[in-house]
Design brief:
The protein is built from 10 helices and 31 strands. A hairpin with a 7-residue loop joins strand 24 and strand 25. By secondary structure, it is of the alpha+beta class. It folds into 2 domains: 2-286, Alpha/Beta hydrolase fold, catalytic domain (Rossmann fold, 3-Layer(aba) Sandwich); 295-507, Jelly Rolls (Sandwich), CATH 2.60.120.10.
Length: 508
């Protein structure tokens, strides 16, 4: 039996070793404007597992404040999760998601399994001597090792939250079942679990978990499982079926769980591709609810007043966009919000505090707090997008209202199309307040995915585009609006046959 287990680990580790990091999305890339955390390597000699030595790594985010308790996430087989060119690149993903406020400020603890100090160190880190002893055993010994040794050690240096719902644990293959065992045995320490291709098979009894889950009182756990339909199938069991049984058992007991599946094998490729989404879901209960970065569709014509989106953002306590068909004279006043009016279709007459003018299609009106606007149509149909917003904290003194007529904005041609610069200023609500209109030639991408502190709306005027937002892709046409949250990587491409035109409006 021991020979069979050893052969399994040689074969499975070869599969795990074949990691390339291919097809990772923008949220797994490093960006110069994203604050970078620090990764520190250490060595540990264990007393719980005598005569073993291991390396471990501690990730400290740039936003870490010693006066504020941080969340904690522990990774088994730490070497594969911190590898710069590997499938996961967790420190980079943490940098991005923490900056985007999609996960809390989190200390990462990446632990390698132990190896006998009397044995030669293998070239393959998956083949260290103590991996199966620590990971596949269903007892509480490993989580006791974490609690009494490594967690106790890092708590000497970092302010870790005591709340177990602020503690997550993750692993791949045998490390996946190890992560679940740690939380199952000690939900007073860990209440969030992320398992990649978890070995819930009969290596050392892991196949018993599904009935145990069904027959045991529900525990305060949030669990994400990931597996592929071409995962291992051998004398210990079928990994794909075992993970499906785990998911079914969690569903039966009404656990908060998610099962992310694909057609992959026993490796971390798909797990790495969906890691940003996995972490976003796992930590969603510990971050503020924000307006989603995605495309918001133009409402059907004939609707006099339709709200396209409304919510909070990182920089704004409130942001709302209403599509308004101007039929008669309409008045606007708000003492709490700044407002922006964008003429999408037709001409309008606008009077800001009794100063009246005619504005053509694609003109813009900024209305300061406490100012009055009267607007009426000049064409059969006039469609206006009305943005209202309030900052979390005022930036400066009151800013005067202003208008920008499309006819007065010069067009500057460049190799990808051209640009019209509407304004670049600051307001009472926003330290940066900038808008331009871009013309983008067919088949071209504006730029590679990049990030910035500013939040942004891309308001489509003409053409068909595709916007990368984080790891997702959305398509937009005339009148659609892309919302891009702060620090979210993004890039737009013209996928139509004609030049595309769109407003880009940024603020912070």
């Amino acid at each position: 039996m021991r020979l069979i287990v050893l052969l399994f680990f040689i074969l499975s580790s070869s599969s795990l070793l074949a990691q390339s990091g291919a097809n990772l999305g923008p949220n797994s890339g490093a960006y110069p404007k994203i604050p970078s955390g620090q990764l520190i390597q250490h060595t540990w000699h264990s007393s719980m597992y005598p005569n073993t030595v291991r390396d471990y790594f501690v990730y400290v985010p740039a936003q870490c404040d010693a006066s504020v308790p941080a969340a904690l996430m522990v990774f088994q087989d730490g070497h594969t999760y911190v590898k710069e060119e590997g499938d996961f690149r967790v420190p980079i993903v943490f940098d991005n998601l923490i900056a985007q406020e999609k996960m809390p400020v989190t200390i990462g603890l990446f632990i390698n399994p132990g190896h006998d100090i009397n044995m030669e160190v293998p070239d393959n880190p998956w083949r260290v001597s103590n991996r199966s002893i620590e990971y596949d055993t269903l007892s509480d010994r490993y989580v006791q090792f974490l609690e009494e040794e490594l967690l106790a050690e890092i708590k000497k240096q970092y302010h870790i939250a005591d709340d177990p719902s602020m503690h997550a644990i993750c692993g791949i293959s045998s490390g996946g079942i190890c992560a679940f065992t740690a939380a199952w045995r000690r939900p007073d320490i860990f209440q969030k679990v992320l398992s990649h291709i978890g070995s819930f098979t009969d290596i050392k009894g892991g196949h018993n978990y599904p009935p145990m889950i069904r027959q045991t009182d529900k525990k305060p756990l949030k669990v994400l499982l990931q597996d592929g339909s071409k995962d291992l199938d051998n004398e210990f069991g079928n990994w794909w079926l075992a993970n499906q049984q785990m998911a079914a058992a969690l569903a039966f007991k009404n656990y908060e769980y998610k099962f992310m599946k694909d057609s992959g094998g026993h490796n971390g490729q798909y797990a790495g591709q969906v890691l940003p989404e996995s972490l976003t879901w796992l930590w969603s209960d510990k971050v503020p609810e924000r307006m989603a970065s995605k495309v918001y569709r133009r409402p059907n014509l004939g609707v006099q007043n339709a709200t396209m989106f409304s919510g909070e953002t990182m920089h704004l306590s409130h942001l709302q966009c209403d599509a308004i068909e101007i039929k008669d004279s309409m008045s606007f006043f708000d003492s709490d919000h700044e407002q922006l009016f964008i003429v999408i279709d037709g001409q309008v007459s606008a009077a800001v505090d009794a100063k009246k003018q005619t504005l053509p299609n694609h003109s813009v009106i900024f209305l300061a707090q406490g100012d009055h606007l009267k607007i009426s149509r000049r064409d059969t149909t006039s469609l206006v997008y009305h943005l209202s917003f309030a900052a979390r904290q005022a930036q400066k003194e009151q800013t005067p209202s202003f208008t920008v007529s499309y006819e007065e904005v010069a067009f500057t041609e460049h190799s990808k199309g051209g640009v019209r610069k509407y304004f670049d200023t600051s307001t009472h609500m926003c330290g940066r307040f900038e808008m331009h209109m871009t013309t983008l030639k067919p088949g071209l991408k504006s730029h590679l995915p990049h990030t910035h502190k500013a939040e942004e709306l891309i308001i489509m005027i003409h053409g068909k585009t595709e916007e990368e937002i984080g790891n997702a892709r959305y398509q937009g046409r005339s009148g659609d609006i892309y919302y891009l949250g702060a620090h979210v990587p993004h890039a737009i491409k013209n996928i139509g046959e004609q030049p595309a035109m769109y407003f880009a409006f940024q603020w912070f």
